[in-house]
Amino acid sequence: NSFGLYRQYPNNPTHNPDDTIGLQDLADGTAPKAINETQPSSISRLSVIPDDCTSIAQSYFPFRNSTIFGLMNWMWTGSAMKSICEMKNLIDFLKSDKFKKEDLDNFDIRSETSKFDKYLDNPSAFHSKQSPQPKASSPKDGWHESEVRILVPDLKPHKKEDVPTFTVPGLLHRSIVEIIKATFSDPASRFFHYTPFKSFWRSNIEGSQSEQGQRIYDELYTCDAMFSAHEELQKQPSEPGCTLERVVVGMMLWSDSTHLASFGTASLWPIYLYFGNQSKYLRGKPKAGACHHLAYLPKLPSNFWDFYFALTGDGPPEEVLTHCRRELMHAVWALLLDTEFMHAYEHGIVIECPDGVFRRFYPRIFTYSADYPEKILLATIRNFGLCPCPRCLISKDKIPDVGKVYDDHRRNTTSRIDSTARNFDINTARRFIYENGEGVKSAAVERVLRDKSFVPTTNAFSSLLHFGFNLFQMLVPDFMHEFELGVWKALFTHLVRIIVSEGKIQEFNKRYRQIPTFGRSTIRKFSQNASGMKKLAARNYEDLLQCAIPVFDGLLDPEHDKAILSLLFTIAEWHALGKLRMHTDLTLGWLHECTGNLGTQLRRFQSYTCSFFDTRELPSEEAARRQKAKKTPSSSRKGKIPTRKTNQDPPSIIGPELKTPKAPPKKKLFNLIMIKLHSLGDYVNTIKLFGTSDSYSTQPGELEHRRVKKYYARTNKNCATRQITRLERREHILLSRTQSTIGQEKQTGFSIERAGSKRRKSESLPYTPPEYHHHISTSRNFPLHIQNLLDSTTDDDPAIKDFYPRLQEHLLARILHPTWSGDGNEYSDEERSKVFFINERLYRHKVMRINYTTYDVRLGQDSVNARNHADIMVLSSSDKDHPFEYGRIISIFHVDVVIKLDKAVVSPTPVSKEVLWVRWYKRDSSYDAGFKKKRLHRLQFFPCNDPAAFGFLDPDEVIRAVHLIPAFRFGKTSNLFSEESLGRAPGEFEDWKYFYVNIFVDRDMYMRFAGGGIGH
Ligand SMILES: [Zn+2]
């Protein structure tokens, strides 16, 4: 297509879901929220099921009519709070012709809900009563409740048969096969990819180094793992007598334990299932119903302690508890990977797809996202043992080598592979424990398992071993926990310690507070006290990283300042690359290189830079340590044996009376032996296999947690988990019903209010269609007489010097030479005098929205206004060394203009022209910046008497908004011009001397500067 993208399929695809995707569908991430919430834009009108009347009537099933369906839908989906948005939805529904008052006869919310629940519990019975329907359309993927058994080690020898078992009740789960059946036959699955492909990109720009096409990595179905799984599947002998197309079901699993409420201990441990056949952009939308709740894991119940006590006469030691938790996890998975699933894995399941074609589907597990503690639980390796990595056999002390060449090599040669030999070892160890009565960590067990840090638990995923499944490969690195909340958080914390030790913390916090916001929520306002790091989520750490360079700039003495700025630049670049949503061979090369740089700089930082500072615990860390020290002795009283490392302080019992002699905070050093650091080296390979990191980051799972919490808020907290399953089913079915009926409805235009506008009279800009380059209101509500504007300021305000003639000139150039852009074209006074402004007025506007194509060929949108998001970038016309020019918008307005020329009237009717009045920045070319120098580009305003300082700009030329951060180090200056001016915000008399261009503010910005963005 026009971006130079093309695809290579292994065989002819029978179904290409992307044919039906319109511009609307690409606009997800940045589309105004209101739209996402009212309607999932994923529904295209082009490919709905044939809408004969029966299907409409059926689609409300099991409800009698559209009225009841609508009411139930409102009741059981969306937010449980009485929010304005929810009320608006209800009113919209009541007004629509789907609502009929007479339908409400005999309607009772309780009985209707219980009827609905009954239907969900046993839909097939329900169906046969009401209307005969094909089996495929009745969902059987409801919840089941089961119990699982685990073997308990009690240090006594047993015969194989009578090892003590403990039963854990209350496992709520659904059948994987039924979920697959329901999902792939659902009309919403018409956007699923059945055939994986490789996509390539050939740059349109001449002279770029990518002459031959570059491989693109983004979705699971464009990457190697699914591609080879597909090819392997086609090579297999087909099922006897079966000629159906064979399709890989790309399973992507998530699990993470979550707290359900801010207070109390209520928690839930869900396993989510997503399908990689679906685009990650759809998967990311909470309303798309793409997330399937597979199970809610039980915890070890409290009567386990009694059970163990009865067995041994003692409480269970920590190692037994750990062991039993592991056993439990794998017992659950063994139950989920049931015989039905195994059969489907081998022989496939036949499903009728929404296009009416029968296909044979083979489930395959590709990724399992979890945080590190859960990963080691799944990998059945020990927590931070000798070989702490779930993917390879690197030893702990080699972790800081990340990014070195032989480190990459070692990852490949020692990668963990599940094998029969491994399982044999584990069975041996289990015999020692259960039949010989050895301890879980006894010498006999250690001898077998210690080398590779395994634990004596049979891994449930090993049951897929004979199909060639390697369970260790699925444990993908997790961007959010491992980088944003891992490596970066650790580095940031240590940098804060350094700043504290230098006594610069006030200045540091002040700088963070002054950083302007950007975008809808790209950079949020920083808290009063950034160094306190209170209540920060991953996205807050992301913001801290993206804005770090100007903050740290110049705080330390020059030598360390230099090193730290370079380190911050590299880590920000790594963050941008690691989080790209579309990679090419080129960008993966950069990521690889950047990993190497980052490793080198981190090692130097730790061994050299850090040694100059006396870094101490931060107040919060100190408090946490004291808290811990207070807690530990009390918990040991409960019979647990506290395992204490020797290098720690003895537990001093700090009562309230002992608080007075406060010890100085402990010394803290920067530690590179973090498993999270090690996993940075795995990104390049993982992206090649499974697609970009956003596709399996734990972030979407965290979003899903919000839904679970919302459910929890609606339960009466008694048997909450079971009630949550009910609510989950209700909403899921209703959402999918809505999706299948929605295609028949017309999409109406939505108007959104500009978010965060506090002024009453502010104009609200309606929804910006993605086809436009930019959007400025056409209202004439804020007229301004040009002469009044000129009179209102002092004569020597440089901002309005020559305002009138220059505006005339600007418009003349635009109207007479529409293809030629830029100013500098000189017109004579006489020519200028032919430009007339109707009523001598400008019509001012507050906002302009700019649509742009992002690097991953999707639509982005920026909103700029003169008040707080005023900085924009345009393509540079004069500067050879730098691709962009930057300006600050003083005002957005349009004028109605007429031009009268001598011979003919060029524009007899007035034309409306939109104009941006801009104060220009110039690049500080004396400052070496860019990727090689690892510095951000520096800008300053033009001196006020420079004719280039102010100017007018055609909004068509704006590329997008830009995030400029003041260079705090250099302070403010009033040299440019001292009086109050229209060129500045009211009440301000100074400008920052310099600004930095924040190229890391989002991935799209980074790719604009780095080059190689496909959509650019
Ligand atoms: Zn590893």
UniProtKB/TrEMBL annotation:
Coiled coil: none
Biased composition (Basic residues): 626-643
Residue ranges, annotated region (Disordered): 123-144, 621-662, 744-768
Record-linked Pfam families: Plavaka
Compositionally biased residues, Low complexity: 128-140
InterPro entries: Plavaka
Protein name: Uncharacterized protein
